[in-house]
Amino acid sequence: MASITLRSLRKSFGAADVIKGIDMEIAHGEFCVFVGPSGCGKSTLLRMISGLEPISDGEVMIDGHVVNAIPAADRGLAMVFQSYALYPHMTVRQNLSFGLENIQTPRAEIRRKVDEVATMLQIDPLLDRRPKDLSGGQRQRVAIGRAVVREPRVFLFDEPLSNLDAELRVDMRGEISALHKRLGNTMIYVTHDQVEAMTMADKIAVLRLGKLEQFGAPLDLYNRPANLFVAGFIGSPKMNFMTGKVHTADPSLLTLDTGEEVSIPVAGFRHTTGQPVTLGVRPQELQPDANGALHINVRAVEQLGSDSYLYGALADGTRLTVHNPGQTRVAAGEIVPLSANPASFHLFDTASGMALRK
Q: Which domain holds residue 318?
């Protein structure tokens, strides 16, 4: 195992700054997920840690030692790529053993390690096949196995499941999490899928435009997002946002741009009368209520059997999603009053996007 420390890390391609001063501490044995939209810099950051991408400024430290000048092969890390990167002319056994042969590991030890890893990943019946004879999930297991046999201090995963179908992604997600628990190594995992991040991570780093927006445990990010971007990115379906102003005479009332008024808990937020704010409410916190203050014009309904989703808009066009457990009789075209528990509210300064929670 190993700890990873990033200090004021920067990366530029010519005049373009793609990593803009990131500081982060990943502890021994943690499963850390880098998540964010395409182009946010998460894969570049992973490649800088691995040594595959030169660093423009700042430091990468492994167990307290700066490794900026150390080649990728000497950092004690193993990387699993999105493309699998298997040697097509080699069998599974040869793919697994190739890295060990390069460092002149004794033949008997290579066989022992390959057999152990193949059994662990349930690919032992595939050892004599070539990659073209494997399914996508089997190829991914081989790619992971090739990293495991090297017994690295840190595993780096660069969107390893993006080529798999939805059902297989769920299965492989569970297998990678189980592998982490079994081995206990530090793992860093890159994905654009926030569901993967929430279900797998000990810590999540949310990135946007080369900056670290928030770093913490999954439920901390979900329950206490630092800003509008994190609030909208973490959680599925995404959080609903409604703009308005704190009542000029009563800080416990929020006047939405629709003219509707919503009560907000004064004690929980740092806000002032007349302040333009954005109210965030998660879809599952809204429910149909004849006495509700919000009124949604339902445009579409999804019935999934165990769950129902209403999609619609307020009078000013602000879109809302409502998630209800079970089935619903609401139909598209209806005007439905909604209420929500004020304790579930999130409040943000509209100008800065920062959370106003105390």
A: 237-349
Nearest Cα residue to 199 out of 171, 240, 162: 171
Q: Structural domain tally of the chain? A: 2
Does residue 355 sit within a domain?
A: no
The residue among 26, 82, 73, 22 whose CA lies nearest residue 50 is 73
Element (H or E) spanning 99, and its range? helix 92-102
Residue tagged 């699998």 (tokens) = 84
Same-domain status, 133 and 156: yes
Mean pLDDT, residues 198-215: 97
Euclidean distance between the first and final Cα of the chain, in Å? 37
357 found inside a domain: no
pLDDT (tens digit per residue) in 105-128: 899 999 999 999 999 888 999 999
Please identify, among 232, 247, 273, the residue that sits at the C-terminal boundary of a domain: 232
Sheet holding 77-80, edge to edge: 77-80, 154-158, 186-191, 31-35, 203-208, 211-216
As a whole number, the mean pLDDT across the chain is 93
> Is residue 195 classed exposed, middle or buried when 0-12, 13-18 and 19+ CB atoms within 10 A define those classes?
middle
Going by their DSSP bridges, the two strands 186-191 and 16-26 should be labelled as unpaired
- Model pTM greater than 0.70? yes
Residue 266 has pLDDT above 80, yes or no: no
> Would you say the C-alpha torsion 57, 61, 65, 68 has a positive or negative sign?
negative
Rounded Cα–Cα distance for residues 122 and 282 (Å): 40
